[in-house]
Specification:
The chain is mainly α. The protein is built from 6 helices and no strands. It is flat and about 60 Å long.
Length: 93
């Protein structure tokens, strides 16, 4: 290593997606501003995509809450959490 810092290959490989996302954000912000950088980040965010899907399917605020509480939405949210490394919390009985 040029700087004298030892990094395991698995750690380096594991951080590649994060580094690419952060660099993309910084470059976009520098060139086109904060709003464009946030749009870029949101387009890759599974939580934002799930929320946008629910919002596009809802016709009223009540239907949004019904959709969000549906089994399908709950399963999608758990999948999104798992992809982010979050373990689901069991629902209270």
């Amino acid at each position: 290593t040029g700087a004298g810092v030892e990094v395991e290959r698995s750690l380096y490989d594991g951080g590649a997606r994060w580094v690419a996302r952060e660099l993309g954000y910084e470059i976009t912000q520098s060139k086109w501003g904060e709003q464009s950088a946030r749009q870029r980040t949101n387009s890759d965010d599974p939580q934002v995509q799930l929320a946008a899907d629910l919002l596009s399917r809802a016709t009223t605020p009540e239907s949004l809450f019904t959709l969000a509480g549906s089994q399908e939405a709950q399963e999608d949210a758990v999948d999104v959490g798992r992809s982010a490394g979050v373990q689901p919390t069991p629902a209270p009985r």
